[in-house]
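name: query_chain
kind: protein
chains: 1
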Amino acid sequence: ELLRWLPSVSCIFYVGQKDQRTKLYTQEVCALKFNLLVTTYEFVMRDRAKLSKVDWKYIVIDEAQRMKDRESRLSRDLDRFRCQRRLLLTGTPLQNDLRELWS
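structure:
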């Protein structure tokens, strides 16, 4: 969809085996040769030590209801990522609990 609707945007799909992701990281991510990086929670968790070193402008998190528990490993790990802005996407209604909204 990204390539169809945003053909001029340089997009990296950060998926694959460990050696493929390592190559993408060293050749593309470190050099910031992209506008958009798409990956999954699982790959973020596996490669969090490397990916958290990047100074991100935006982090967009789909299925953000997975982060409702502020003490979850995913939530704590994503706190280590430096970014200017975060956008959380969810189709699941959240409660109007300040701690939940903050997390």
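note: The longest helix spans residues 18-29.
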